[in-house]
């Protein structure tokens, strides 16, 4: 595949019988999918299992992709419904904020990492924990806009809202996220500001 091939071209070719090209879509979106699944579960193994399930479901439903929105928008919908279904089946208990698994990623990283890289991961984890404290709709908005890099119009399509409504709700969700961070992560926020 040449690097200029867009998602819709790959999908057309896969649907015409070039199934091996689906691996290119998986490579292109594996980090996107895995990052979102990690926001639903703190277990790396569960996130990997969910991500694999997402790509299987997406492959089986590829003929249903109409190209009216970006592939990532369509894929995000599959990711969120798969995560919710997985969590319902597993009936996970809510993890407390002092759960040691939250720090697994930083502790398991190579000791050769520079201090500022570890600090950056810690900040990202703090933000992810704060996002988990939000309502599902607020978390979805934040994830779609910042992680999924979806436009207001695309978020509107996913959530069944007008773009202006999305803009207002996103503004409110960011404010609630800020409030959660200032309430639950007082020291961490102070450290970031210094």
TrEMBL record:
Classification via Gene3D superfamilies: 1.10.1740.10, Winged helix-like DNA-binding domain superfamily/Winged helix DNA-binding domain
UniProt domain RNA polymerase sigma factor 70 region 4 type: residue ranges: 126-177
Family annotation (SUPFAM superfamilies): Sigma2 domain of RNA polymerase sigma factors, Sigma3 and sigma4 domains of RNA polymerase sigma factors
Family matches, as InterPro entries: RNA_pol_sigma-70-like, RNA_pol_sigma-70_dom, RNA_pol_sigma70_ECF_CS, RNA_pol_sigma70_r2, RNA_pol_sigma70_r4_t2, RNA_pol_sigma_r2, RNA_pol_sigma_r3/r4-like, WH-like_DNA-bd_sf
RNA polymerase sigma-70 region domain boundaries: 25-91
Record key words, sorted: DNA-binding, Sigma factor, Transcription, Transcription regulation
GO biological process, one term: DNA-templated transcription initiation
Gene Ontology MF, one: sigma factor activity
Family, per entry: Belongs to the sigma-70 factor family. ECF subfamily.
PANTHER family: RNA POLYMERASE ECF-TYPE SIGMA FACTO, RNA POLYMERASE SIGMA FACTOR HI_1459-RELATED
Protein name as it appears in the record: RNA polymerase sigma factor
Species name: Paraflavitalea soli
